[in-house]
Structure to design on (174 residues):
């Protein structure tokens, strides 16, 4: 049974931004609450054209911005940001699977918040499989994301644990 949708709470401890120059949107969009970011004139992305991908996708500032959006509970916005990058990728490369897994992870968390456990569970399973495959193909840390730690955070959330954060690589000791 669906539960009433509520605004997403901000993180208790906000991780530092990877792309601080891009900032964060003024509100977290949850379907059914507030103006749709793209389709409503009061949406925070209204009238912002989608820029084409001009760099390798992982060097595009939107990649890091998507990571920031996810970690700050802007799941819809992270999904949309990564979707733009994913659209320009060859689907046969492992990075496309990783990106699709992150897109599905954001959707899974948002669907859980919206009280849709069936969709959330299905998306979580797909995201988990893609991220584990990417970890095998690209290495445990790929494009600045610790994939096994991310999968664990998503699993913990699915089991009733805390809001997930994307795994950040542990800095090397000096």
């Amino acid at each position: 049974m669906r539960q009433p949708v509520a605004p997403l709470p901000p993180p208790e401890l906000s991780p530092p931004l990877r792309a601080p120059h891009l900032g964060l949107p003024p509100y977290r969009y949850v379907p059914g609450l507030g103006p749709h970011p793209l389709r409503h004139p009061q949406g925070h992305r209204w009238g912002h054209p989608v820029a084409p991908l001009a760099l390798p996708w992982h060097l595009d500032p939107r990649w890091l911005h998507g990571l920031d959006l996810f970690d700050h509970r802007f799941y819809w916005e992270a999904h949309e940001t990564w979707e733009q990058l994913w659209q320009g990728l060859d689907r046969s490369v492992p990075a496309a699977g990783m990106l699709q897994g992150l897109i599905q992870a954001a959707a899974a968390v948002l669907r859980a918040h919206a009280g849709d456990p069936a969709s959330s569970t299905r998306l979580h399973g797909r995201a988990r499989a893609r991220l584990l495959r990417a970890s095998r193909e690209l290495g445990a840390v790929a494009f600045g994301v610790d994939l096994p730690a991310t999968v664990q955070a998503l699993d913990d959330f699915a089991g009733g644990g805390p809001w997930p954060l994307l795994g950040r690589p542990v800095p090397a000791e000096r």
Remarks:
- The longest helix spans residues 117-138.
- The beta strands are 141-142, 145-146.
- The chain has a mean pLDDT of 86.
